Amino acid sequence: MSRFAHRSFSGGPGAELLGRLIAEIDTLVPTTEPVLVGVTRAATHDPGSAQFDPRRFPAGPRGAAHSMLGFCAPPHWDAVVAVLDGKARSLDGGNLPGHTGPVRSYYLLDREARACSAIESERGSHIDLSGGHEPVGVVVDACHRALGLACAHESRTTLHLLAAVWLNAIVVAATDPDLDAGLSCWRGVAALHPAAASPTGGGGRFRPLTPERLASVAVRAALRLPFESIRTRCAHGDWPMADLSPTEAAWMDEAMFARWVLGAYPPLQESMADLESLCDPLVVDIVTAMLTAWGLTYDDAAA
Asked: Domain boundary at 146, 178, 206, which?
């Protein structure tokens, strides 16, 4: 396989370090299971003296990072390397033009939050990772939390989460013959929004839930319940989650928790594509108008 460093440590031998670590890790970790490898302090200063402590983490229900949740690196680990096997796909404007197929990725992070990453292609083809973008996602987050480091900021808020839950509920209803009839009018579509279930959301003896009211109610609900508030409640056992224990929620920080929760739902762009193929154009127009009112765009899904 060919190896290409994504970016080196600032002022340090990051690319050389990662290259030497990869050569050793390939012999230590031939398995396709996700692996987190601890690197001793000496190795960060002298790659040739690297010592490794590989820990295997079989992929859980939510992917490679699921079984890494709650893991704290031993004090003698000065850095971690996440090793993952997967498949690459080419995206418009992405860093893997024309490449698809099996790859092995490496993400190295030290206790000073200096990072370096690389990808190996099975065919030995060149993979240009010079776009300058840092890797993101729950595996990267898990590496940060394992070392007690803060994760990269997450710009999406619970307003985005409410929209993701809403769009997913509409898609589910549109594929259910017993429910899709309710999507022929605004009231049926609005009733699926999580904020519509609250007393301020309308319905029953309350004021009708007009588009303007739903826009306002959703914003107020998001302001009252930021991700950190949900994470704290989950950590205390007051907000049960099927795929996250209180201990794991406490181990996360707000940014990782937000990405983890948002990752349980399809991206807005994907849900909108489903809506356009499943729903009446009126429903699509309504949802598009609401997303615009909330300042959300389809691209926010990858923010």
From this structure: 146
Mark whether 133 and 12 lie in a shared domain: yes
From first CA to last CA, the distance across the chain in angstroms is 31
Quick: pLDDT tens for 25-43: 667 766 667 788 888 765 5
Please choose, from the candidates 161, 290, 165, the residue with its C-alpha nearest in 3D space to the C-alpha of residue 229: 161
pLDDT 10s digits, 218-265: 999 999 999 999 999 999 999 999 889 999 999 999 999 999 999 999
Q: Locate the DSSP E strands across 100-187.
A: 101-110, 115-121
The 3-state DSSP class for residue 10 equals: coil
153 within some domain: no
pTM above 0.90, yes or no: no
> Residue 151: inside a domain, yes or no?
no
- Domain-ending residue, one of 146, 174, 198: 146
